[in-house]
Design brief:
By secondary structure, the protein is α/β, with parallel strands linked by helices. It has five helices and five strands, in the order αβαβααβαββ. Residues 6-20 have low confidence and may be disordered.
Length: 136
Amino acid sequence: MHTTIGKLLLAAGVWLAAAPAFATEIVVIVNPKNPATRMFSEQAAQFFLGKSTLFTPVEHADGPLRNEFYKKVLDKDATQVKAIWSKLVFTGKATAPKEYGSSAEVKKAVAADANAIGYIEKSAVDDSIKVILTVP
């Protein structure tokens, strides 16, 4: 009996160790002049998957924040999103989002473009942008 409990505890420990260490709150942001005030995840996903051109998505370069955003908001992984954009670009239906290396750069790009939409860590929010969605 003790070995069964030991195996369960070991399995739980391995599972917890394998869980992603990235647990930062993510927010979707727009320019303060943008009329949008709130948005659901499903609506935000439309822009980052090229299904709507109402807003111009501003993207993070590869990394944990981008992967977490894709998983929680788009319900996709980076490979799936790249394939979607590759098809849209190849068929001439869209231009891939501009990528930036940090939340500070994404925030600056969104603050400079009234039609832009992006995402950053909640801790990076200031009055240069407006939060329209907090990702759970």
